[in-house]
Amino acid sequence: MFSTLNVFFLNICIIFLVLSITFYAMRNRLPIQYDSKLSTRVYFGLANGVTGVLLMYNSISINGSIIDLRLLPLALSALYGGSISISTTGFVLLIYRVSILQGESMIALQSSIITLLSFIILVILCARFIQNKGRLYAVIVTIGSLLVLVQMVLASPRIEEWQTIYLPYFLITISASVLFYHLSQMLQGHFVLYAYQSYLASTDELTRLANRHVIMRKVHTLVKTNAPWGVIIFDLDHFKAINDEYGHAVGDAVLRHFSVLLNQACPDSVTVGRYGGEEFIAIIPNTLSVSPTELAEKIVQSVTETPFVMQDHALTVTVSAGVAYAKNQSAPLVFEQADTALYAAKNNGRNQFILHQK
Question: What's the distance, CA 145 to chain centroid?
Fold first, then answer.
């Protein structure tokens, strides 16, 4: 009795560990849904396949019979990842079943394959009609248990086997499935919240660009690698006048308008963010592939050609920019040089960029 409970709780620990690692590794892809990226659903199916293999390896022995909980990761794959995830999990379990085939009759193996395929097909069909996750999970576990029951009936068990083997199997499966469902809901909810909090901690609330902390962390990484990098500091022209004339709500909208143009104009390799107030920044990690001066010119021109549209008229917005290259200087010095170039652009008539010259 105690050895059975010990293995049962070992199985629960396996489920908790693999689920935790899986959700943490996929924290930026959560929540997992039927319309998630294909790679996400395949990865989730593989992770549940690993869980199933570990559960089969650490199976529970009751009165000479082996019981495992592979039904649970299959159910979880179907619940969150749909047909792609459950098919992936089933494929992993089949490979493991074939690899450990030692003295087992091919008839028994074929029966297991037919049962697994039937389970996957029935679950996919049910998922089309049941939207509530709790109900769908209960139906999935019920289908799996009924298919096992069919196998038991076909095996013509003795009366005492129902009491000593099959009844404990169903009790273990039901209790584990309830625990497994609530555990998965709790873990996914935790990591969704974790990912959201991490996003807020690294993002400017108004513009949704990187905040100052992320910018400085990127610069610190570039300085350590001794890579050639550059910086562009942007400042919206006459922004205070916009706030005074139209109000802070319009001013915030103008900041968002510029942030969209800045983000669209910069390649993925460039880190863009809000530096503070109406100042924005672009960190170019490789000045050999992306020219800071050409990028600054492109953005200044794009802002001029794309007015901010209000309800009654269009508001022309311009921006000034200062550009500096990092040539073995410290990061604060490079930022100071870009800032000096920015003020030179302001004093030279605005709506332009200036490259800092030594």
Answer: 32
Q: Which residue has the tokens 């920019």?
A: 321
To the nearest 10°, report the CA torsion of 81, 82, 88, 89.
Answer: 80
Per-residue tokens: 203: 């993002």
Could you tell me the residue ranges of all domains in the chain? 2-201, 212-355
**pLDDT class of 108 with cuts at 50, 70, 90:** low
CATH topology for the 2-201 domain: Arp2/3 complex 21 kDa subunit ARPC3 (1.10.1760)
Distance in angstroms (rounded) separating the CA atoms of residues 330 and 307: 37
Average pLDDT, the chain: 83
C-alpha triplet 143, 148, 167: angle, nearest 5°: 105
Which of 1.10.510.10, 3.10.180.10, 3.90.1580.10, 3.30.70.270 is the CATH number of 212-355?
A: 3.30.70.270
Q: How confident is the model at residue 293 (pLDDT cuts 50, 70, 90)?
A: very high
| pLDDT higher at 329 or 274 | 274
Separation of alpha carbons 122 and 78, rounded Å: 11
Query: CA triplet 232, 237, 240: central angle to 5 degrees?
Result: 125
Q: DSSP states of 162-231 as a string?
A: IIIIIHHHHHHHHHHHHHHHHHHHHHHHHHHHHHHHHHHHTB-TTT-SB-HHHHHHHHHHHHHHT--EEE
Nearest to 90 by CA among 115, 60, 127, 66: 115
- Residue from 102, 80, 83 nearest 29 by CA: 80
pLDDT at position 336 over 90 = yes
Output phi, psi for 227, to 5 deg: -80, 150
Task: Give the three-class secondary structure for 271.
Answer: strand
pTM exceeding 0.70:
no
